[in-house]
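Researcher: Structure prediction, please.
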Amino acid sequence: MSNFAGDQEGTEFLIGQIAQTVGDYYVQLEQYEEACEEYQDALASYGQVLPSSADFSAAEQNRAIVNRTLDSLQSKLTPTSAPQHLVKLVQWLQHHFDQAIEAGWQAIDTLLAPEQEQLAFSLRSSMQFREGTKRAKLVEIDKTTVVLLIALTPEVNQEVQVLVQVHPHQGEILVPGGLELVLSSVDGEVLQTVQARTQDNFIQLKRFTCPIGEQFSLQLGRDDDNYTEQFEI
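Model: Predicted structure follows.
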């Protein structure tokens, strides 16, 4: 049975590589919608590779590359054809991470060094999130990769408290100066914003609370480059 499982995971990794290669080919042809479909298939296959597999590390690296490529393709797609990923955070609280994994959200210890993870929850305002549900995602802004982190803590009355931080990627010490993190309502109203200074090792929004079903967006921007993702509690 274990050999069968290993073979199956190896097959998923191979399928992911093939889909990624086909996606790269479509990018060269400037067929961006087809490329996005192949990249999504690649993410789904890489997500089936378990941590116990010998291919897990390579699958995670490829998945990060695919996610960065997908993000860069958004500017090449028309607003009507761009894929809209509504990340449903309530699934994280139910420990259902399939959609999160496909959208590039990973366990934070795969993206943050131990000292970064400790810093992320060392502030008094962040302590309650230490045991909550949290995921992180690589985002490339202005040719620099940063880690977007979201931590959730359920409260009474069907509400969820949310903490959002941005950290430098492993190997870096500071987030890029001028990097801006913006929280907006579903109607586009800016609710919060914070901008990195030249010596910030992370930035964060003030924690906020949302009822189940409420939507919001997060935007990262620096100079003329920006990244936006939609969420629903």
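Model: The chain has two domains: 2-76, 86-232.
Researcher: Thanks, that helps.
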